[in-house]
Specification:
Blueprint: H1 6-20, E1 26-27, H2 28-34, H3 39-51, E2 55-62, E3 65-72, H4 109-117, H5 129-137
Antiparallel strand pairs: 1-3, 2-3
Length: 138
């Protein structure tokens, strides 16, 4: 069993603050101050998080000093991302759709079609939401 190190804890707290900062992001110096860490420690954590693709850093001039604005590369989940998903109203759900079962997400033609034709917000490419809803009834 691996125990969380001080660095692991600071990385998690940093990610949380960066994510909560939203699209505007947070200045790297403000991040260090909020987490009560040294600039050296903060820089190393940010470089590591950036190398993992979890954040992006934009070099900016702030109050006559160079620093970085840090933004999350992840977007908050939205309900729109699953609207229209066939799993929610699947008639076969009582058959225990699960990975490894006869009925599973891995071999569901309805789910595959929805994924391949859906766009952000669950709308099917080239169709309105009303048309998609009518198609479900057929």
């Amino acid at each position: 069993m691996r125990f969380a190190t001080k660095r692991d804890i600071l990385e998690k707290k940093s990610l949380d603050l960066i994510f909560r900062a939203g699209e505007e992001g947070i200045l790297q110096t403000d991040l260090w101050k909020k987490l009560d860490m040294s600039s050296r420690e903060g820089s190393r954590i940010c470089v590591r998080l950036e190398s993992w693709g979890l954040i992006k850093r934009e070099k900016i001039l702030c109050d006559g000093r160079w620093t970085y604005r840090i933004k999350s590369t992840r977007k908050p989940p939205s309900l729109g991302s699953i609207l229209g998903a066939p799993c929610i109203t699947c008639a076969q759900a009582g058959s225990m759709c699960a990975s490894g079962n006869e009925i599973s997400p891995e071999n569901c033609d309805t789910l595959e079609k929805w994924i391949l034709t859906s766009q952000v917000g669950g709308e099917v490419a080239g169709e309105s939401k009303a048309q998609v809803d009518l198609g479900k009834e057929a």
